[in-house]
TrEMBL record:
<dbReference type="Pfam" id="PF00753">
    <property type="entry name" value="Lactamase_B"/>
</dbReference>
<dbReference type="InterPro" id="IPR036866">
    <property type="entry name" value="RibonucZ/Hydroxyglut_hydro"/>
</dbReference>
<dbReference type="InterPro" id="IPR051453">
    <property type="entry name" value="MBL_Glyoxalase_II"/>
</dbReference>
<keyword id="KW-0479">Metal-binding</keyword>
<feature type="domain" description="Metallo-beta-lactamase">
    <location>
        <begin position="12"/>
        <end position="192"/>
    </location>
</feature>
<keyword id="KW-0862">Zinc</keyword>
<dbReference type="GO" id="GO:0016787">
    <property type="term" value="F:hydrolase activity"/>
</dbReference>
<dbReference type="GO" id="GO:0046872">
    <property type="term" value="F:metal ion binding"/>
</dbReference>
<dbReference type="InterPro" id="IPR001279">
    <property type="entry name" value="Metallo-B-lactamas"/>
</dbReference>
<protein>
    <submittedName>
        <fullName>Glyoxylase, beta-lactamase superfamily II</fullName>
    </submittedName>
</protein>
<keyword id="KW-0378">Hydrolase</keyword>
């Protein structure tokens, strides 16, 4: 397996493609620029199996319908955000996008629990990491030593908690209990910015020091 990061949309939200030797892939957080993302996938001759959302804020879902229509694949989100894709007041877009915000079609599948999760040959450990939003999920891939953390943890920072459902104390607890317990060499693939590691954030993240 291998992964690639593709910043998309006005906020340069990181979408990720996780692919295998059979040219299958899953798409994390297709945040915008649908035509560009589709072109990248087609040029690599990849076959998407699903869209996995770390959470349902508007900057992570902008190209969901473009991708879903092109390949007729299911979209997964945590059950706590099952209505967010269709509701601009919940996904935050009403605060940033004029003329009604952004709404896309409802998710196809709801994630209801932590633990092992598979799509085709792709296997993940699901970690519920709320705080940035109630249904934030991190997807840990032990084989690759990576975690797709969405907007929970960034290089030297953490997710904002001033949007609907945000809770700072809950986010700090999620990071401490769920992410910092991963092996220190684990690469953190965040929703914005570059890569970091669990060990680096344990040592250097000012939001986490002293917790």
């Amino acid at each position: 397996m291998k992964w690639q990061r593709i910043p998309l949309g006005p906020l340069q939200t990181n979408a990720y493609l996780l692919s295998n030797d059979q040219k299958e892939c899953v798409i994390f957080d297709p945040g915008g620029d649908g035509e560009r993302l589709i072109s990248i996938i087609q040029k690599q001759q990849l076959k998407p199996l699903a869209v996995l959302l770390t959470h349902a804020h508007f900057d992570h879902i902008g190209a969901v319908d473009d991708v879903r229509k092109t390949w007729n694949i299911p979209v997964y989100v945590h059950e706590k955000e099952k209505n967010w894709l269709q509701d601009a007041s919940l996904n935050g877009s009403q605060f940033f996008i004029p003329d009604g915000g952004l709404a896309v079609q409802a998710p196809d599948e709801l994630i209801k629990s932590e633990g092992q999760f598979s799509i085709g040959s792709f296997s993940f450990t699901l970690l519920h990491t709320p705080g940035h939003s109630p249904g934030s999920i991190s997807f840990y891939v032990e084989e690759l030593e990576v975690v797709f953390s969405g907007d929970a943890l960034f290089e030297g920072s953490i997710g904002r908690t001033d949007l609907p459902g945000g809770n700072h104390n809950q986010l700090i607890k999620s990071i401490h209990d769920k992410l910092l317990t991963l092996p220190e060499e684990t690469i953190v693939l965040s929703g914005h910015g570059g890569e970091t590691t669990i060990g680096a954030e344990m040592d250097n993240n000012p939001f986490l020091n002293g917790f």
